[in-house]
Structures are given as C-alpha cells and as structure tokens.
C-alpha cells in the first residue's frame, strides 16, 4: 500500500468534525429515501457521494472512477448487490472499504461471505454509527488524527424522497406482476418502509415476501401493497 501523500492539500485531510473528508463514497442504492439519508450522512461527515441505482450503473461508474468506499444494497432492480460485492472483493486494486446494506439483518452473513468488510442494517440514520462503520475499516493513514467528538445525531431524509419511492413501486407494479418483479417489490418496499418507520407497509411487504418463499398465493398480498402505495401517493397529493 502506498504511503499517504505528504503534499496532500490540508483542506482535503480528515478532521475531527469531518472525519470522512477526502473520501468518495459510491452508494449503490435504488431507493431515493435511503439514498437521501446516505447523502445527508456523507455531507455531515465531509465525504463526497456518488450514486448508482442499479448494477449496470455501478459497473459503468467503476470503469471510470475508483471510490474510497462502496456501499451496496443487496436488492437491486437488475440483480443482487452480492454480485457486485464479489466482483469488488476480487478486483485489483481493491476498493479500500466495501459495505453491504439491507433492511434484512439476516443478509449480513451473505454480504460478509461475498467479501464485504462490513454490513449496515437499514434504516441507516445514526451519524456516529455510519462514521464508525467506515472509519473502523479504513487504512490507518486515512483516519483523522487525535481525539474525535462523536456526534450521534439522527438523520431525517426529506419525505419527498419517500414519495418518489412510492411512485417507483406504483410504476413497477403497473408494468409487470411476474414472480421476479414481486420479489423485487417485496424487498424494495420492505426496506423503504422500515427506513420510513411505516410499520403497516413493512408488514405488508413481509407478508408478500413470506408468500413468495413458501410458494403460496400472492395476488392478495400484491394487491394490498398496490393499494397501500396508492394511498400514500394520494395522501401526498392532498398535502
């Protein structure tokens, strides 16, 4: 590993208040709500954020840029984030920090087995938790020097991003009701609902996911989610 550049600009070196200054974090995430939370966390931490909303976009980005950190959601519209984690873990040079993320904590083992350095369970709203997840896995020379004041603030994404996610689900359901589509909808809606603390919607997504795993009928669960999504879109329009 190369030694840190002694002539690096001081303004780009990490500080106690902005411990991720100088880092570029690629967030591979299809949820606008979850990505807005990441944007706020990166902004407060001093990191630059780049976003990819699918595997294809992430791979295209990685052909051009070498981020310091990649945070990959495990459920993406064109495949699993596990595929990307496996590719990154084998790549040379390797991305210094690879983190998996999902609303399902049982996905942690799969992400680590694929080569991730760590795992972030959604919702990701703790500033201190986010910073520690990155800093603890960075090379020592990239960490801020001296003591650091840990600010355990809670990040609250713009509700408009939640509305955008609901509109996305409505579009997906209107285009297809195939099994793979329903699997994606259950995963996506579950993650967004947990991040937004929407218990009823999270339960509906969990019911659909369980029906798919058990091979049971799914029409009722899919219709329920479609109705709940439309209800939330209508509520936003009223507001």
UniProtKB/TrEMBL annotation:
Protein name, per record: Response regulator
The signal peptide, as residue positions, is none
Q: Which UniProt keywords apply?
A: Phosphoprotein
Phosphoprotein: present as a keyword of the record? yes
Q: List-wise, which residues carry 4-aspartylphosphate?
A: 73
**InterPro entries attached to this UniProt entry:** Bact_response_regulator, CheY-like_superfamily, Sig_transdc_resp-reg_receiver
Q: Response regulatory domain location, by residue?
A: 24-137
Which taxonomic lineage is given here?
Bacteria, Pseudomonadati, Pseudomonadota, Alphaproteobacteria, Rhodobacterales
Q: Which Pfam families match?
A: Response_reg (PF00072)
